Amino acid sequence: MERPPRAVVDLAVVDAVVLDTDGVITDTARIHAAAWKRAFDELLRDRGRQGGAELPPFDVASDYPRFVDGRSRADGARGFLRSRGITLPEEGGPGGAGPGVETLGSLLDRKTRYFLDEIGTHGVRAFPGTVRLLRELRRRGTGVAAASASRNCGPVLHAAGVDDLVDVRVDGLDADRLGLPGKPDPALYLEAAVRLGASPGRCALFEDAVVGVEAGRRGGFGTVVGVDRHGSLRGPMLDAGAHLVVGDLVEITVVGGARRTRGRGEGPRGA
């Protein structure tokens, strides 16, 4: 069977590239999903026992892409819990929850602990097709940013051995510090473009979540590439504004050359 034509990123019209981290650069989306499931299911079991009725557990296949994937951890948690009729106090302390009461903050901390335990035990794998693309972009002098709503973007890139392949990192710590709203607002990606010294219209964005594709469209990115690794999001990604959808970045062919764009933000080791 004849193979379909490979997708092309033309550096004559692309000055810089922004990539989502989890699911695009690193195979960590599944680890995030597993950590969320563990944290959510513990809470749901406790609430079910208290209310005398079992609550449906977190479903990785449906609940993760619908509520969590691509969003800030707080927004994702709030959205999923609302679907189960649960609202948690934001924090403990004066005016908040009392000692021993589950809060949104304690749930998020537990999820982070489960995630870090998992990558500490099993490590992190970068997708080979993405590594190939990153090396090719560096060879051609194209600025590259890694972006993520996660606060753990730095440790993840380092554990995967790819932190030296990106010029700029913008993550959940930056979002908190700068007050950047979560996706589908494009603020996180626009900040990455600013640090690369490139206009969004001259940037290519790679995203594996529909909400992230929508953020790219809203931000006016010149090329928005949806990464549909499981073959189930092509239609929704195109509807959300993707210019093209691929199953893996090995399908991407880079042509042309670009003037080196210098990041104006902190580099991968200091961000």
Task: Describe what this molecule looks like in 3D.
- By secondary structure, this protein is α/β, with parallel strands linked by helices.
- The protein has 2 domains: 7-28 and 125-255, HAD superfamily/HAD-like (Rossmann fold, 3-Layer(aba) Sandwich), CATH 3.40.50; 30-122.
- 41% of the residues lie in helices and 13% in strands.
- It is built from 10 helices and 8 strands.
- The strands form 2 sheets. It has a 6-stranded parallel beta sheet with strand order 4-3-2-5-6-7, with helices on both faces. A two-stranded parallel ribbon has the order 1-8.
- Helix 1 (29-51) crosses helix 4.
- Mean pLDDT is 88; it is low at 1-5, 92-99 and 258-271.
Number of helices: 10
Number of domains: 2
Following the backbone from N to C, one meets helices and strands in this order, namely: EEHHHHHEHEHHEHEHEE
CATH superfamily of the largest domain, please?
HAD superfamily/HAD-like
State the secondary-structure class.
Answer: alpha/beta
Spatial order of strands in the largest sheet? 4-3-2-5-6-7
**Uncertain ranges:** 1-5, 92-99, 258-271
What integer is the average pLDDT? 88
GO molecular function, one term: hydrolase activity
Protein name: HAD family hydrolase
Keywords: Hydrolase
